[in-house]
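Methods, example record. To illustrate the input and output format used throughout this study, we show the complete record for Solute-binding protein family 3/N-terminal domain-containing protein. The sequence lines were provided to the predictor; the line carrying structure tokens was produced by it.
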Amino acid sequence: MFEIAMSLARIASVLLLFCTQAVLAAEPAPLRWCYEDIAAKPWTLPNENGLNALLLKRVEKMLGERFVYVARPWKRCLEEMRRGDFDGIFAAADSEERRTFGVFPTLPNGEADPTRALHEDVFQVFLRKDGAASWDGKLLQVPSNGVLVQRGYVIGGVLRERGFDVREVTNSAADGLRQLAAGMFDVAVLQGLESDVLLRSHTTWSAKVTKAPMPYATRPMYLFVGTAVYERDPKRIETIWASIAAIRKTPAYRTQETKALRQLTQLKAHD
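The corresponding predicted structure is encoded as:
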């Protein structure tokens, strides 16, 4: 009887182990998202408290998903996603070059679907007050020292396609404004609502730099997913994109977004 009991216990242990392994095998692996390690308020912050990460955490809870968030320099995010080290990145604007290694949520006509974006961002034109550059909302006049943009940002490619000498020599809007105020460039096209707030809040910069009335461009910003990741389980990714759109419409998220934007505009001026 003792031997029979021991045999049954062994069988039960093997069955339990088999069932546990089967459950684990059925669960999809966590998705690894890369995002920029420099704050772009209110959307991304290195501590995962930006609106984009908070939105994705709501998606996790809604779907029972598991995401891993890793902060990196933006160009490194792009390069490591291209290599397959990350499943996707946020928040990225659509471009033909990026579509060579990843997928955006799209409409039936193939264009990116702005209703499933994380947010919309703006590319502002900043000019030295004593410089030779100008922007009237249609024509960008640039002197010989080129246009300053943030490294790896999609606007750099747009400007190159239009024949401009693009200088990707800054990682942040703050450093771009500093270089502009120092006279290293006459014009910068910088992404983010925060760039305008930074200029107004730093009196030493605003004494020498002005923001053009019209932005250069606005772009929806997406959760951008690697091609192989999407093709492995398109239903999973499409469901995540659909959940982003649904959560953005909720009163709770809208209230959170409004509060964050209000706080951003209340930064105090300093030297």
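Annotations derived from this record:
The chain is about 40% helix and 20% strand.
Confidence is low (pLDDT under 50) at residues 4-9, 14-25.
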